[in-house]
Amino acid sequence: MKLLPFSFQFDPTKDAPVRLSYARFQPARPGISRVATFALAALVAVAGIASPFTSVMAQEKLTPGGGSAVAGQSTEPVVVVTLGSIDQLTRDLNYLSGAIGQPQLGGMFAMMAGTFTQGIDTSQPVGVVVPLIDGAPEPIALLPTSNVKTVLKRMEAQVGPADELDDGTMVIAIGANTVFIRQIGNWAVLARNRSVLDRAPADPSALISEMGTDYDIAVRLDVQQIPPPMRDALIGQIRQGFDQAMKQQQNGDEAALEYAAQSIEQLEQVIDQTKELMIGIDIDSANRRILLETEFTAVAGTKLARIYDGQKPIPSAYSSVIREDAAGYVHFASSIGPEALEQAQTSVDGAMQMLGSALSQTDKLSESEQAEATDMIRRVVELMMDSAKEGKSDFGALLLTDANKLQFAMGAFVSDGGEAASIVKDVAAKIQGRGDAPRFEFDVNNYKGVNMHLVEADVPAEEDEVRKIFGEQVRVHIGTGPQAIYVALGDDSLPLMKQLIDSEATPVAPSGNTLMQLEVNLMPILQFAQSVENNDAIAAMIDALSRADDAGELRIVSEAIENGQISRFIIGDGMLQAIGAAARQAQQAKMNQGF
After folding, report:
1. 143: left (phi over 0), alpha (psi -120 to 50) or beta
2. Which 3-state string (H, E, C) describes 398-418?
3. Are 553 and 574 in contact (CB under 8 A)?
4. Backbone φ and ψ of 196, nearest 5°
5. What share of the chain is helix, strand, coil (3-state, %, to 5)?
6. Pairing mode, if any, of strands 18-22 and 6-10?
7. Are 253 and 60 within 8 A, CB to CB?
8. Per residue in 337-396, pLDDT tens?
């Protein structure tokens, strides 16, 4: 008896180094509707896909019928996969398909769901849990139905009649696979082995309802449930494959091999010291957005946990970049612990060795130019590491746009602003007089202790759009303070840069656990682009955005939690509406070309 045989393969020589493969599903008899068969078999297939994952956190112990656990076996699942309820998925897909201008897609799903989910509780999520039994993953699918016999009866034409064993367990054949099914309260549990059904949770809803409600699809892994020998075997396979690939690609280059070894050691640390990992995707029709959320925690007391615990929000000199009228901004301000510094230094040292080796092999630079380039990069990297050794990072960048006007400024903490200025001056000295190199002016003035410098470059006449934005010359202003560096793009951006300099004197305390946040609002960017040069596709996107709930928002936020971090990637309704409008405009343009 086999269930969709799968294999987990790692081959770093391929474009996709990690690959999961499983045998093609074959219908049980000629003429079977693949869609109808899939309605029952999909859960078991998902279980087969989920099994190779490292593991998943569970909220309830898996015990036979709610009783005591079988001796010597894990009482919690390694992997939990949830799929939102049919009602939830229908709402969310209807919203998404409408937002991108393809409402027929949502209608197709609703029609299929109505046809093939009769007898299933469409208000409850679907789940797959994977406990380890005798060291092997055994997926158990959880289907919300109060009478699985009714469901099976309606599908007899597709999968044939089900057999009933003496304990009430149902058995069906799906292609070459045998599936055992048992009713537990208002749920049906499915497994590929009859004895595994005894490991099903007594109350599946308590295990999967939270994830199934919060996300349309989610996976939670509990890495520590995987036996150490299995983790070691995985690491060994990855190490072997990675080493072979590096030897082939780098021709045995010692620096590259050493860097590869360091990378594997860090990967080994992550695999060995990770506690839980959750990934959830939700098409949030209620809030009209798409959310991708990840949550990571390390084992308490490990080096990896100390690295994450060393990252805490700190008062920031540049939080003023967070503005509602921004076309875009990025801000991060956090402490840096000694463990993170140690690991970063190791990575930097390896990267510098690889860089030096790569430069020595190029024939485009002379030996003296190679030495100069290596030295300049080394100085930049050392300044970055010296800044990190101060125990913090603080950075802010802001983009504002208006009709025919673009403003961009950024500010960042550095340990030595004088060294930053010295690096720029040395670069200027080396490229001065070479072809169309930019022109530099240093220490042109001073603003509140910040020395102001100017970099100027001519815009070629053929770069018409660039000239419309910046004029015949691009002017970049650089400010270097005792422990800060600032950049402003264009003369119009100087006021923004001075605002950042002003705010350095009064850092703002964090209001929560946010470490980093990035936001892009499409509407002001499109309006600026349209003011530079009229475009039908951009006009269509602006029109769609004017009717959306937001200005085309895209956000990324990372927050600190105990021993870990939560990250959220959010695409707002406006962004989806704009994408749909652009797609429709492209389709219309293609149709017009056909006439």
Report:
1. beta
2. EEEEECCEEEEEEEEECCCHH
3. yes
4. -65, -25
5. 45, 30, 30
6. antiparallel
7. no
8. 999 999 888 888 888 887 887 777 777 778 888 888 889 999 999 999 999 999 999 999
CA distance 211 to 230: 27
Residue 22, classed as helix, strand or coil, is strand
**What is the rounded distance in angstroms from the CA atom of residue 61 to the CA atom of residue 74?**
9
φ, ψ of residue 127 in degrees (nearest 5): -145, 160
pLDDT one-digit tens code per residue, 262-317: 777 888 889 899 999 999 999 999 999 999 999 999 999 999 999 999 999 999 99
Is the Cβ–Cβ distance between 568 and 541 less than 8 Å?
no
Q: What distance in Å separates the CA atoms of residue 525 and residue 519, rounded to the nearest whole number?
A: 12
Rounded to an integer, what distance in angstroms lies between the CA atom of residue 521 and that of residue 532?
18
Count Cα neighbours of 562 within 13 Å in the Cβ-side half-sphere: 3
DSSP 281-344: EEEETTTTEEEEEEEEEEPTTSHHHHHHHT--B--BS-GGG--TT-SEEEEEEEE--HHHHHHH
One-letter amino acid at 579 equals I
Name residues whose C-beta falls within 8 Å of residue 527's C-beta, 6 or more positions apart in sequence.
401, 402, 403, 542
